[in-house]
């Protein structure tokens, strides 16, 4: 039997929340992300960006203000938000991207308005729907349609930069040798480097300080502009802590 509640002490270690305050924490609805890479928007607003203090305040914010998740308004306080999702609060003009820190924990990074209009989508698979129509499936749960000839250039593992509202493809970043990549899970999470070699299931990545192997499924091909959005610097965390 599926439980509708979750004890705070047993919440995934990727949730950067205090463990010994209240007994329970909001359990997110099922969605595109695994539970380890997502949390409820209530938890995000209360404990990651601290825009609300209670669940009642979160419900009020969701009901009375425009809170957008990837360009779509959400009113349910259990809505799932996860890695690479963009959360916008229109009334205060705040935009956040959920990224990963060097311990594998989910962290919010504030974006400017222009940055918040573009999504990072990793291609997970492709499905042929009919004559000259292919569906591109992404890790984030979004599906894009393309003509067969166009879809041929998009490979599983590649990255697409798309408009938030229309999902119009703005840029295609292939996963290949010499590509710049961001590792989003595993013991090397949050590291950025150059893809040196691609094996059957693993890859070799070289950074300024080291060279290591990891799973091909653990990384995202990026351009330099988007890498700076994903990277979480220790100085940012120190600044946030000092404001509390």
What does this structure look like?
- The chain has helices at 41-48, 55-64, 148-151, 224-230, 234-243; strands at residues 6-7, 24-25, 38-40, 67-69, 72-73, 80-82, 86-89, 94-100, 106-111, 118-130, 133-138, 143-146, 159-163, 169-173, 180-183, 192-198, 202-206, 211-215, 219-222.
- The chain is an alpha+beta fold and 244 residues long.
- A five-stranded antiparallel β-sheet has the order 5-4-7-8-9, with no helix packed on it.
- The termini are far apart.
Give a quick set of tags describing it:
five-stranded antiparallel β-sheet, alpha+beta, 244 residues, globular, 19 strands, disordered C terminus
User: What Rg do the Cα atoms give?
Assistant: 18 Å
Main beta sheet: 5 strands, antiparallel
Q: Indicate the mean pLDDT.
A: 88
Structural class of the helix and strand makeup? alpha+beta
């Amino acid at each position: 039997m599926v439980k509708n509640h979750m004890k705070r002490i047993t919440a995934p270690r990727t949730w950067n929340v205090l463990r010994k305050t209240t007994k329970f924490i909001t359990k997110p609805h099922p969605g595109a992300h695994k539970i380890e890479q997502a949390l409820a928007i209530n938890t995000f607003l209360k404990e990651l960006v601290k825009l609300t203090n209670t669940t009642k305040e979160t419900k009020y914010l969701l009901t009375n203000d425009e809170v957008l998740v990837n360009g779509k308004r959400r009113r349910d306080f259990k809505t799932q938000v996860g890695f690479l999702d963009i959360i916008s609060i229109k009334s205060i003009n705040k935009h956040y991207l959920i990224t990963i820190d060097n311990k594998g924990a989910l962290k919010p990074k504030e974006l400017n308005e222009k940055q918040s209009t573009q999504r990072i989508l990793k291609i997970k698979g492709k499905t042929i729907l009919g004559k000259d129509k292919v569906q591109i499936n992404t890790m984030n749960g979004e599906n894009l349609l393309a003509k067969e000839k166009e879809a041929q250039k998009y490979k599983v593992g590649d990255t697409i930069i798309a408009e938030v509202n229309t999902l119009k493809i703005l840029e295609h970043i292939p996963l290949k040798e010499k590509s710049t990549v961001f590792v989003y899970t595993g013991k090397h999470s949050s590291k950025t480097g150059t893809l040196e070699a691609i094996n059957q299931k693993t890859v070799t990545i070289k950074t300024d300080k080291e060279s290591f192997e990891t799973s091909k499924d653990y990384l995202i091909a990026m351009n330099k502009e988007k890498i700076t959005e994903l990277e979480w610097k220790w100085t940012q965390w120190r600044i946030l802590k000092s404001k509390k």
